[in-house]
Design goal:
The chain is of the alpha/beta class. It is built from 14 helices and 9 strands. The chain is 36% helix and 12% strand. It has a 9-stranded mixed β-sheet, sandwiched between helices. The longest helix has 37 residues. The protein is globular. It starts with a helix and ends with a helix.
Length: 426
């Protein structure tokens, strides 16, 4: 998300090339299989942590002693990179400008949705032949206006792919050069595209366990999806990073002090996407305020002129209030890791739904003292390599996948024993 807040400034340096050629898939979206419910023991951990965790806030129903050792990165103290990591705005902007962007060949698939909209799915080129069909599958959801070209997305893709995971980046409507074919973008409230993407990739690889990682607004959409799908969710686990959680609080803080820089830069990025597809909105009528959206100086202006009308909200405040993922935590029934930075200027610390996370046996929250927004310039690869969070996320996902594999193996053994017993009895 933050990379796109400064996208207007970065474009003077050139744009990332697009890999792969898009092709269209069928409108028919079969339902993905529903995995077994995976519950962690309800252990609340918030203050009495071992000394090596002293720089982190860790809490949640999933923070049992049997789970935390799987997150090997947490055995070391969180140490921000000198100077860069000591100021949240410096860290946020440094990561956006100077973090490396791994070169990955991608193959694009354009998925037509049920309402004739389009989203772009970017797969690692060659993985359909190189990986077995039961390889775990990871869906990546970038932040607002973000896409598969963003550095934090590329680093996570590389990290997961190195472990033998199949990875696909979900570029929302208009993002990452994804086509816009109807007068509707995406929003924090709309889950239709997410449902169709999960069903689509699940049907393509029915033997694979599905997981997802979301950043910023992508994290908000992911957590809302987990909550609404609840027990029926086809994902086996998920990770939320830099989630604004409470959009009302995030909106309040977004318009204060230096945050105005991010607000204006992101508004320009939204206007740029809109103007590419402005013809779709000619003579649209209704409550739309097209001039306001086309010339928005803030994200709030854009949401007031376009987003809240597209998705049927009475006002922009109504939209923010009813699109916050903080209200969905209590309904999450799949393992969920949430990682936040206490000094995040865009996803406020005070908006984190700590009590609901503590009470949900499926959730674990890690809050780092520094990190900015999508910064986390710390760890072995700092300052220009992968963010500190990547190894933590991979450890978490690998832990879940091992558990799922054992569950399948155990189920197969039980079924085999029953068949053997039946044969002996016969």
């Amino acid at each position: 998300m933050v990379e796109n807040r400064v996208r207007e400034m970065k474009e003077s340096k050139g744009t990332l090339k697009s890999d792969g050629a898009p092709h269209h898939s069928s409108n028919s979206i079969p339902s993905a299989a529903t995995p077994p419910v995976f519950l962690f023991p309800a252990v609340h951990v918030s203050t009495a942590m071992p000394d090596h965790h002293s720089s982190l806030e860790i809490l949640g129903g999933a923070a049992g002693a049997s789970f935390l050792p799987a997150l090997k990165t947490l055995s070391r103290r969180y140490n921000p990179f000198p100077l860069i990591g000591w100021n949240r705005h410096l860290e946020t902007i440094f990561a956006a400008f100077f973090r490396s962007v791994p070169d990955v060949a991608l193959r694009r698939e354009c998925l037509r949705t049920n309402d004739d909209g389009s989203v772009a799915l970017d797969w690692v080129s060659g993985d359909d032949r190189a990986l077995p069909p039961d390889s775990p599958l990871l869906i990546l959801l970038p932040g607002l206006t973000g896409g598969s070209g963003d550095s934090y997305v590329r680093h996570m893709l590389i990290s997961a792919r190195s472990k033998g995971w199949r990875v696909v980046v979900f570029n929302s409507r208009g993002c990452g050069e994804s086509p816009v074919t109807t007068p509707q973008f995406y929003s924090a409230s709309f889950l239709g595209d997410m449902r169709e993407v999960v069903a689509h990739v699940g049907a393509r690889y029915p033997k694979a366990n599905l997981y997802a990682v979301g950043w910023s607004l992508g994290a908000n959409i992911l957590v809302r999806y987990l909550g609404q799908e609840s027990h029926a969710c086809p994902l086996s686990g998920a990770v939320s990073l830099c989630n604004p959680f409470n959009l009302v609080i995030a909106d309040e803080d977004f318009r204060k002090g230096f945050n105005n820089v991010y607000d204006k830069a992101l508004a320009r990025a939204l206007c740029k996407i809109f103007k590419k597809h402005a013809l779709l909105y000619e003579d649209i009528g209704g409550d739309y305020n097209i001039p306001m959206a086309a010339n928005a100086k803030t994200v709030r202006d854009f949401d007031e002129g376009l987003t809240r009308v597209s998705f049927g909200f009475k006002s922009v405040d109504d939209y923010y209030s009813n699109s916050s993922s903080s209200d969905s935590i209590k309904d999450v029934c799949r393992p969920l890791l949430c990682i936040q930075a206490a000094n995040d200027p865009i996803a406020p610390n005070r908006g984190i739904p700590r009590e609901d996370i503590k009470e949900n046996p499926n959730c674990l929250l890690i809050v780092t003292p520094e990190g900015g927004h999508l910064g986390w310039v710390a760890g072995d690869q700092a300052p220009i390599g992968a963010p500190w969070t990547d190894p933590v996320v991979i450890d978490f996902l690998e832990h879940l996948e091992r558990g799922e594999s054992k569950a399948v193996s155990s189920s197969s053994n039980i079924q085999g024993s029953e068949q053997c017993a039946e044969a002996v009895q016969h």
